[in-house]
Amino acid sequence: MNTxxxxxxxSLLDQLRxxxxxxxxxxxxxxxxxxxxxxxxxxxxxxxxxxLTIPATVLVDVATAELVSADVPAGRGSxxxxxxxxxxxxxxxxxxxxxxxxxxxxxxxxQRVEANDVIARLDDANARAQVAQxxxxxxxxxxxxxxxxxxFDNAVPTFARNEEQFARSIISAQAFDTAKAAYDTxxxxxDVAARAVEVADATLSLAQRNLDDTVVRAPFGGVIxxxxxxxxxxxxxxxxxxxxxxxxxxxxxxxxxxEVEVDVSExxxxxxxxxxxxxxxxxxxxxxxxxxxxxAIIPTADRAKATVRVRVxxxxxxxxxxxxxxxxxxxxxxxxxxxxxxAAQRAVVVPPAxxxxxxxxxxxxxxxxxxxxxxxxxLGTRSADGQIVLSGLESGARLAVTDFSQLSDGxxxxxxxx
Length: 418
Hints:
Distance between the termini: 100 Å
CATH superfamily of the largest domain: Efflux pump adaptor protein, beta barrel domain
Number of strands: 24
Strand order of the largest sheet: 2-18-22-21-20-19
Largest sheet: 6 strands, antiparallel
Order of helices and strands: HHEEEEEEEHHEEEEEEEEEEHEEEEEEE
Number of domains: 4
CATH class of the largest domain: Mainly Beta
């Protein structure tokens, strides 16, 4: 067999051989893509399951419960705390009774005055002229009265003699009538003169009173807190006179009448009673506890603030106590062994935003590492420092502050970095 025949045979065999490289079928080409998509779907499913099954984390701010420092006598507990102001029950803006120009002012702020002390004088020129005129009119009336008295005294014996002569028929009836008319005229003239003297006395008294009204006096003893007028200004008890007329000379406060007014939430007014012992602290002197007691509970509520006003008497007087000072008051219980006293001794103050609720009870969320515990607490009053919590919360507890609708017992939280 020659070489050419062998080559032809090999060529025919190569044509009959099956090529399994590129023509293996569609399944052989797409199986890597199917495997990749399967792995991707499995990964997404696992990630979604992880995100859906782990607890959600809520971003919160933190507030700390602080112990309420109650400066109360030993063995007494505070059952209610509130804030208020020092007020004077007796104070007056003193003005003149008449309109006039100020010629003298005898007061300054902070000056102590006694009752009837002169604090200002007005121009009295017109008043003095009226007094002089009234005095002259009175003298004239008195002189007329004296003349009428003399005329009447002279008419009395004349009429008596004519009456006797007429009874003895010595004079005629016409002469007797003339004598009687003269007597009656003298008596009437005397009566009119007497009334004229009384009118003159009243006129003089009025003029003298007007003169006295030019002197402004203190109605009671106290301290001058406001000096409202100066020399040369006009004062009037009626109106401000277009902005250039003063309505008063100054304001006097009776420091012995100072007391405290407190607005107590109507939810806690049942804890207050007349003559109840109290402790008062001035905001300016927070370490000074002043003993006090309840004077009265004003029998009406403030609809806008939902509070009831309580008057409080201070048992101590001191120059440091000034009107309109802010105060913190503690209403004391009747004994140290009562539950209210023990609860008050453990009372804490928290920001109002950390408490949900109203009335006597509320809800707080206490932070424990990365979760919160829902806790019920008993509330006291709300003061300038925050919400008082009487029980259910210890000092130093960390509270979550956020939208309470996002929190529940055991919820995971993350503390804000602020």
